[in-house]
Amino acid sequence: FNYYTGSHTFPGPGTYLISMIDPNRDSGVVNIPNSINVPFDVQTQLTISPYTGCDNSPIVLNPPIERGEVHVPFYYTPNAYDPDGDSLSYQLVPCRGVNGDYIPDYNYPIASNIFNLNAQTGLLTWDAPEAVGQYNVAMLIIEWRNGIQIGQVTLDMQIIISDCNNHPPRIASVPDTCILAGDNIHFTIKGSDTLDGDNVYIFGSGAPLTVDPNTCTFNSGATGNPSVTGFFNWNTTCNDVREQPYQMSFYVNDDDQGSYS
Questions:
Q1: What do you get for the CA distance between the two ends of the chain, in Å?
Q2: For a designed S-S bond to 127, which of 16, 102, 113, 146 qualifies (C-beta 3.0 to 4.6 A apart)?
């Protein structure tokens, strides 16, 4: 992980573009020709306006590097949240390179069935990878307030597809929930790898675990064989009230680099 921090004072209201460029990407990226000589570029659009008020950009909680297996459906969510409770939408875009432009001859990964992104939840579905290798995928996370777009950030991620003859662990689904502020919400998440019998590890991330003061817990890192149970508990308060729903992401890894969320 590289962290770059700094402060900047803008001259006044307006829409500004903040970008970060790295000289080159990894070599051998399947869907970027000659990737070792192609820069890596990510951008954030910031709007400063007396009409929209103070604003914080969306924050991505899930790492932008994931693994999958050839011929097995791959799922990923950035698990982005907005500290101000603004609405978020998602859009697939080509990766950027020289001068921040879209990379010429960039191609979305080939799928045997579908490759798409849910505009509301940010769920990326790749059903299913047809070839091993490294792939780069980018998405815009767009921020809305009162129906007006006030900003956006770019997520550029790497997906490593291998052929390891491993069955990914499974995880039980959890229904969406609506509660009143002040109520407690708790439930269990169960994951398992009954086909291979690998050790499995459960993790969770999401806005409820980041609010301040924090009253939410999840036993990330818990392990088991061939199954594991995660315990989610949140003692909500009136400070947690907001118009947009909170999103939690749960995923299970095994010893053979399989993952399911």
A1: 23
A2: 113
